[in-house]
Specification:
223 residues; single chain; 8-stranded mixed beta sheet; 8 strands
């Protein structure tokens, strides 16, 4: 990721968007464990074969939307675009500050062995486990970057989708189409991908799916 001056970093901290996602009412009530979903999508460098053989992927777009399951609201942050990005370590620091404010203001916390009473629960959601289980993990190890513990557990929505609908989707776009949803925005734009993954998560909840943690780096894959 390219260096960005302090003024640009300050501007990026204000890159917040709130959109209304109040659509069809829930039809099949299933008690969910998590109150908030942090839907995450990375875009990374992609190398063509054979020129890219041996090259490592690097995160070039870090996008997250915070989905309030009760109020059906999305708040998004789109961090580190290619042309005006920041080093990954700085990006993680900025994200930690961003999510820290929401954790405090909304009285929520990440899953852990010791949940404080009265706290609402949130968890990361991804489409496949590549973002947190491969991309971020390997780049942080390669560059010796500190990674917060809260990145260690997540819900792989693709796995939940297959378990609930008993079919394997053809990517995120195919999954949306199969349940009657239209992709909104630009494909492979990190923030748009994250938003549409959130829409799909909402649809799964409406259809009675139970969203549970599928992956824990410390305990490998959940069963």
């Amino acid at each position: 990721m390219a260096y960005s001056p302090t003024a640009e970093l300050a501007r990026q901290l204000d890159c917040i968007e709130v959109i209304d996602v109040t659509k069809a009412n829930s039809q099949k009530k299933v008690t969910q464990h998590f109150d908030f979903l942090l839907v995450l999508d990375f875009e990374a460098t992609c190398w063509s074969f054979p020129s890219g053989k041996g090259r490592n992927n690097e995160v070039i777009e870090f996008s997250v939307v915070l989905y309030d399951r009760i109020l059906h609201g999305l708040t998004g942050i789109n961090q580190a675009q290619v042309e005006e990005g920041v080093p990954l370590g700085t990006c993680l620091m900025l994200f930690t500050r961003w999510i820290g404010n929401h954790l405090k203001n909304l009285n929520i916390s990440f899953p852990s062995d010791m949940m404080l009473p009265g706290k609402k629960k949130c968890v990361f959601v991804t489409w496949s486990s590549w973002d947190l289980g491969t991309c971020l993990l390997k780049e942080c190890k390669r560059k010796n970057i500190y990674k917060q513990e809260f990145f260690s557990k997540w819900i792989d929505l693709r796995q939940i989708y297959m378990e609930h609908y008993y079919r394997r989707p053809k990517g995120l776009l195919g999954a949306l189409e199969e349940v009657g949803l239209e992709f909104i925005g630009k494909q492979h734009s990190g923030l748009d991908d994250a938003k549409n993954t959130a829409y799909l998560a909402r649809k799964l909840i409406q259809d009675g799916a139970y969203l549970k943690i599928t992956n824990d780096i410390n305990n490998k894959k959940k069963r």
